[in-house]
Amino acid sequence: MGFWSYFLLYAGILSYFTWGVVVAFEVVLVMAGSDFAREWVKKRYTLKFFMFEVYLFFPLVLFGYVFLEVLPYFLGKSESIAKFDIGSTIYDVFAEDLDELDDEDFDNPHH
Asked: Can you give the pTM of this predicted structure?
């Protein structure tokens, strides 16, 4: 491989990790119950795009959860661990949107 191939490869990997850390931090804050994080995510994301990013960066979300929730608990810096539940995290932020989708599916089950 040539210089530009390696350059693009490393740029892609670094971009994935950089943005993945940001998304992981957002998701873990929402899991921990931060109202500010919940509102921040709701203002900047749509339901589909947030779900896409959560699943795209899922390994980094797990990694962030371990370092931001589990490790501080075992080191005695936190009294409890937030439950790792992606479904309820997405529902906490986008409850109204998901409820509307459920109502639409119920009203017209033959899409």
From this structure: 0.79
